[in-house]
Amino acid sequence: MRISSAIRRFRAFEDGSLSVETVLIFPLLAWALSAMLVFWDGFKVNNNAIAATYTVADLVSRQTSPITDDFVKGADKLYAKIVQNNNDNELRLTVVQMSESTTPGGDPEPRLVWSHGTSGLPAREKIEDITAMVPLMAVGTSMIMVETASDWTPPFDIDFASMTFRNVFFSSPRYVPQVKFDNGGDDSIGFVYDDGDAA
Where would you find the membrane-spanning parts of this chain (predicted)? Predict the structure, then answer.
């Protein structure tokens, strides 16, 4: 009897500040939940972009025949598929070869062999723009440079700015000394600076 009376009294008790606390804390909880979803989505897209860049680099490194514009466009589509991002994505492939210095007694120097970009990303034209990024290489060897960019927009408007995730990955050719590019003589498709055979 005492228990039932206590329950009835508790149920009829209307004092307290629960409604006030709810009004104060609910917006903060909603913002925190939205922020967690935004951060999770951003990290997911960034991680996917890194994995996609590595995948494209591995794919290109396995080619034994000269790749074409269609191949690069296909690699771009593969990259976008892995990233799972509805915004713009860009891809650029560049092959760099280490050559003997043009000055007597100088250090070996990297040089551009060919470069091709997609989605409006222009081909590389100056080796000086990427010299600092080129890893150590033996004279006569070449590496494939894969550059990607993925625009990301937060799924919720919580005053978190949009950003572009950029990644650069270098890979050595697996089965041939150098992966070549065939633009059919059309430099508007991609620049082939030389055949890359000379060290």
Answer: 20-40
Check residue 181 and give its pLDDT. 93
pLDDT digits (tens, 9 = 90+) for 3-21: 777 667 766 666 656 666 6
What single-letter amino acid sits at 160? F
- Phi first, then psi: give them for residue 104, nearest 5 degrees: -55, 130
Question: What's the CA dihedral at 158, 161, 162, 166 to 10 degrees?
Answer: -130
Alpha-carbon span 127 to 131, nearest angstrom: 6
Q: Is the pLDDT of residue 198 over 50?
A: no
Tokens representing 73 are 């466009």
Instruction: Answer whether 156's CB lies under 8 Å from 34's CB.
Output: yes
User: HSE (CB half, 13 Å, CA atoms) of 2?
Assistant: 0
DSSP state of 139: T
Give the span between the Cα atoms of 135 and 12, in whole angstroms: 75
Report percent pLDDT > 90 for the chain: 52
Ramachandran angles phi, psi of 192, nearest 5°: -110, 110
Task: Assess contact for 154 and 169: CB atoms under 8 A.
Answer: no
Q: Provide the pLDDT for residue 116.
A: 93
Distance (Å, rounded) from C-alpha 195 to C-alpha 182? 10
CA distances from 139 to 23, 93, 128 (A): 69, 21, 18
Neighbours of 107 (CB within 10 A): 8
Q: Which two tokens stand for residue 110?
A: 């990297």
